[in-house]
Amino acid sequence: MSTQRYTSARKFLLDELMNRQKRNPSYSQRAFARDLGILPSRLSEMMTGKVGISYRNANKIAQRLELSDEDKAMFLDLVQSEYGRSAAIRQASSERLRDRLQEAYAFKQEEFNVISDWYHAAILELVDLKDFEVSAKHVAKRLGISPDIAGEAIHRLERLNFLKIKNGGAEKTHRNRATTLDVPSAYIRKSHAQVLRKAEEALDTRPVSERDYSYMMFAMPKKKISYLKKVLLSLRKELAKEIEELESQNSDSVFCVGMQCFEVTESK
Questions:
Q1: What is the pLDDT of residues 18-60, one digit of tens each?
Q2: Which residues lie below 8 Å from residue 81, measured CB to CB, with a gap of 6+?
């Protein structure tokens, strides 16, 4: 687990324990202490904030969790900024954290742009087409966007490691592109709004043989909406499996499948 989005070492440890317990419900805090090489009583005090985390224990935890060099440096600064032995150490660590968090914020904003603007996902799918060319001009022509927007999107996908460009070609990194829980709702709304506008445009510009639109109305207890959302999620997963079987080197077009569910009645 990465430390990059955390502002507290204690919160990072609590989340690491929670993630392990999700994978293994019988995993205890005592087992966590064993895996970190720390006394259970000491870990309990650290997790509840009764005592600080020493630099020695922070180093040990970073090694036991096999953190990358970048994540280890971040974790140690989180510890030192709060529990450093001197004001100078705490201040220096806090300044390094501020710089890292500013960089992380800029990076996260880039990821939000990938999620909110429809053409990023479309470019990743264009890569699978037999006639794909790594050029802003080609992408712009295929997606009906400007070359400037296409070029910026290609570079953004490469910077964020969604796309690898080499030897005049490109390939997806197969990174998980599912929406994460920490994406602000404004970006999700923007994404949905863009796709709905594209669907409206296709209704007028695409022949019936190249599109399919349908909907159904039904009465249902409002409290059952959570169950309905689970059913729709299951349908999307099944459809994703079907689509994977359709994909091949002979793919020549990119399609978008949308599913909407919303209440049309006004609240009482």
A1: 989 988 989 999 999 999 999 999 999 998 888 999 999 999 9
A2: 90, 93, 94, 97
Q: Contact at 8 Å (CB) between 79 and 105?
A: no
Helices vs strands, H then E, count in the chain: 11, 2
Q: Report which secondary-structure segment, H or E, holds 24.
A: none
State which amino acid sits at residue 95. E
Tell me the backbone φ, ψ of residue 146, rounded to 5 degrees.
-75, 150
Q: Cα separation of 192 and 220, whole Å? A: 24
Q: 173-198 pLDDT, tens per residue?
A: 865 444 444 556 777 788 889 999 99
Q: What does the alpha-carbon distance between residue 187 and residue 137 come to, in Å, rounded to a whole number?
A: 27
Give the list of residues 6+ apart from residue 237 with CB closer than 8 angstroms, or none: none
Question: What is the C-alpha separation between 268 and 265, in angstroms, rounded?
Answer: 9
First to last CA, the chain: 45
pTM for the model: 0.58
222 class by beta-carbon count within 10 Å (0-12 exposed, 13-18 middle, 19+ buried): exposed
